Amino acid sequence: AVVGNGSMLGCISQKGELIRLYWPHIDYPQHIERFKMGINTPGSEYSTLWLEEDNFKSNQKYLQETNILETEHVDFQNTIKIEQLDFCTVNKNTLIRKIKITNTGQEKRETGFFIHSSGITTSRNLLSSLFDFDTDSLIHYRHGYYMGISLSLEIKEFQLGHDSLELARKGTLGGFDSIGMMPDGAVYSNIGEIKPGESKEFSVFITLSDSLNGLKEEMHLLKKIDTENELKETDNYW
What we know:
mainly beta; 5-stranded antiparallel beta sheet
């Protein structure tokens, strides 16, 4: 499936994984090598379940007459359901992933959320990563391109490189160096307790800019927006 706005194009697998992201043109250049999202049980080692792996049954559709993509993930024990809406905003260089997690089981559960991402370049330009405390975001950058990843939740832990995917799978990130000469990184947010029948909602923001200052300015604005209004605006546009 694809989502886009004319200058940004995201390609999404049938399991809901973002596998390509193009900007400022819908066919060039490509910025994402890997973008994984998963949930875990805080304090329980190796409990991270990646949404696009064989932990969930997934169903997918576009919202009627739009290119807003809905992916529903249900675990095989029917204890948790994750609804994911992907859309590119009409007037921003931003892809929003709106997440709703519902406890469909009989027991309360503590839940955390991981993102692991890796940037890509087909040129000789250096590709690096940093964690920006000012905007609470993971940033991948190379000459002329800056991609920021943040959440409406507070990021509690981060990791740049150094087996960040394996550490996210394990459930503990230990980052302290905020700038690294590597393409990958991971972030973690604590969703908290979800009671049976209860839902928790939050958003993931992926935005692109041609300058670091421009990216940070946009990411500050994203922290203040009403994503429900952005969703309605995108729906109305299509």
